[in-house]
Amino acid sequence: MKSQWSEQDACTFENQGATNLDPLVAQRLYSAQLIGCNASLVLHGGGNVSVKAPYKNFLGENVEAIYVKASGTDLSQLSPQGLTPLDLERLRKMRQIESLTDEQLADAYRLCCLNANAASPSIETLLHAFLPHRFVDHSHADAVLTLTNQPDARALIKETLGDSIGIIEYIRPGLSLAKAVANLCDNEPNLTGVALMKHGLVTFGPDAKSSYETHIDIVDRCEAFIKQKTEGKSLNTRFKCELKSESLVEKIAPTIRGLLSVKSDDIDQLFVRPILDWRHTPEVMRFVNSKEAKTLSAKAPLTGDHVIRTKSRVLFCDVQDWSDMSTAIATITQGIESFREDYKKYVQDHSQDTTQDDGLPKVILLPGVGALCWGNTKRSAAIAADITEQTLRVKTNASLIGSYQGLTEQHLADMEFRTLQRRKICQSQGKALAGQVVAISGGAGAIGLATARCCLAAGAHVVIADLNQEALDRAVEHLTAEHRPEEILALRMDVTDEQSVAQGFVEMVRTFGGVDVIVPNAGIAHVASIESLDVAQFRRVMDINATGYLTFMQAGIRILKQQGLGGNIIINASKNVFGPGKDFGAYSASKAAGHQLGKVAAIELAPLGIRVNMINADAVFGDQQTPSGLWQEVGPHRAKLRDMRSEDLPEYYRQRNLLGAKVTGEHVGRAVVFFASNSTPTTGATLPIDGGVVEAFPR
C-alpha cells in the first residue's frame, strides 16, 4: 500500500473549502477521504477520524474542540457536516469516570456537542479525545485484521511492526477502550500507533499527513509480511461444477428470496422481501469451493463493527451436487431453517431483547455459486456483500499464515445488539413498496418512466425495459438525478422476442434476486380504417401490444411462482378497451386482447396470491422531457381528423372528460403503486384513469 498524499491536492482542497473552514479541518477532510477511498482500509461508514481545532461559538468565542466523524458517515465522502464538533475539555474530564452505560454515553456526547444540529459523533469519540495528538486515524485495515485475528496475534504484530506499535487486547468500544489506549500512550509516548486486537488500527500525529502516512506505512508492512507468508499457498479446492454460477443463481435466487421473506404485521403487505447482491469474483469462488470454506465460514466476523451489516454468522450451505436441483434446494431450505433455530438460541443467550431480529441469514455462501448477500435495499445488500468479500479475503490469508480466530459470541452479541451500533443501520421507512422489485416494459416512455418514478418514490427497486437504447439512457439519467442508481436496472428488451424477454428476467434475478410487480406497458399505435388496415401492420401492433404483454407476463409469472410470495401484475390497457375510436382498430383490438389476458390471469393466479389488475388510461401525452412516442406518431392524424393543430390535442382531450382533468403518466404510476401495495383485496379489476369518459365507463 502506497501513500496517495499530494501536497497540491491538499492545498487545492483547503482553498476550495468554505471561507469559514479552519485549515486544520480542511486537512482532516482531505486525509479522511484518502483513507475512505481505499476499500482495504474501511468500508461503508467504517473507521473514524478526528482533529483537535478551535471552534467559534455563537458568542464569537474560540472553544478548544475536537471534530469527530459522525457515526455511520462514509469517510470517502466526508464533508464538513460529517465532522461533529465537541467540547474537548468536557470530554477529557470523562476519563475520570469509572463506567458509563450506552445511554449515558450518548447523553454525554450530546451535551458535549458544540452544534445542536450536528449529527451524533462516532461511538469511539472518547478514544480520540483522550489522546493528546492533534490528528487521529482509525481503520479496519484488511492486513492488520489478518494479523490481529490470530491466536498468536501479539507475536505476529511484534514480528511485523516491532515495538513502535502498541497492542491492546479486545475491549468493547467506548469508555473502557478509550482509557486503555490513552493509558498505553501515556506510558509509551513514542508509539506511532496502536493495534486493537480483532478491531483495527489507530495512528496519530501532529498533522494530517504524518498520521495518514504512518497509517499507510504500517498497513504496507503488514501486507508485505502477509505476502511473504502466503507466497505459493492457497486454499484446497474441493468442489467443481460444470454449470456456470450465472446459470445456478438464476435458478435458485427467487426460491431463496422466498425463504428469506417474512410475513408482515401489515396484512395488506403480506411479506417483507429482501434484495440481493450476488458476488462471484474469482476470489469468492475459490473460497466457497474450498475444503476449508465450511470451517472458516463458521468462524466469527473480522470485527464487531461488521455484525450489524452481516450478522454475527453467515450460512454456508454445503451443496455438493447441482445436477439434482430439488435436492440442492432442500439442502438450502434446511440450512436456512437450522440457521434460524441456532440464531434464535444465540439471541436468547446473549440479548435481553429477543424480538429485534428475524433470525434469517444476510449472507449465504454456496459452492459453485458464490456469495448471496441480502438486505432491505440494494445498498444494504451491497454493503453486506463488500464486507463479505473483505471477510473471505482476510480469513483466507489468516488461515494460510496460521489459524483465523474471531471474537467470542458474547463480544459479537454485545456489538450486534448494541443500540448505538444499530442506529447506523438504514431502517425501512415503511414506504408502500419497500423491498419490492417492479418490472416495467416500455419503461423509457412517458407512462413507463413516470411509473418508475412513482414506484421508486414508494420505496421500490425498478427495472425499466425498453427496445430503444437511447431512450433508456435518457430515462436512467432522469431517474438517477432523484434516486440511487443501484435501485434502477435498465434493460434493452424486445417484448416480441421470447428469448430477449427471458434473458431480461434472468438479469432481474441476478441483480435483485427476484421480481414482485409486473407492469406490461410497452405499446405502439397505428392509424387506419378497418377497410384499409394493412394486415402486416395489424400483426405488428398485436405482436407488441398483445403478444408482448403475454411474453412479459409469462416470464414474470415463473419467478413469482418460484418465490411463493404472491405478487402483482398490473396491465396498462387503455380507455379504448371500452371506448374505441374511429381508425384505431389495431390499437383498440390489441389493448382489448391484453385486457382480456389480464382477466384470465386474475382467475388463474388468484390461488397463488398473485393479483392481476388493469389500468385504462386516456391520452397521456407526456412532457417536454419525455414526450409520448405513441402520440408523436398518431397525434397528427388524430388532430387532422378533428380539424385542429397537433399542439391543441392535449387541451381537447382534457375538456372532453367529466372532470376536465389533464391525465399524466404520474396518475398511472400512482395507480400502479396503489395496486402493488395491496391496499385493497382486489384482483381482476379495471381502474379508469381518464377524468371520466362516459363511453369508456367499465361495464
Q: Which properties best describe this structure?
A:
about 700 residues, alpha/beta, L-fuculose-1-phosphate Aldolase, Rossmann fold, 3 domains, elongated
How does this model look, in words?
- This protein is 45% helix and 14% strand.
- It is of the alpha/beta class.
- The protein has 3 domains: 7-230, 3-Layer(aba) Sandwich (L-fuculose-1-phosphate Aldolase); 275-365 and 376-421, no CATH class; 437-696, 3-Layer(aba) Sandwich (Rossmann fold).
- The strands form 4 sheets. Strands 3-2-1-4-7-6-5 form a 7-stranded mixed sheet, sandwiched between helices. A 7-stranded parallel sheet has the order 16-15-14-17-18-19-20, sandwiched between helices.
- Helix 6 (142-148) packs across helix 15 (378-401) and helix 18 packs across helix 25 (665-676).
- The model has no long low-confidence stretch (mean pLDDT 91).
In short:
The protein has 699 residues and is of the alpha/beta class.
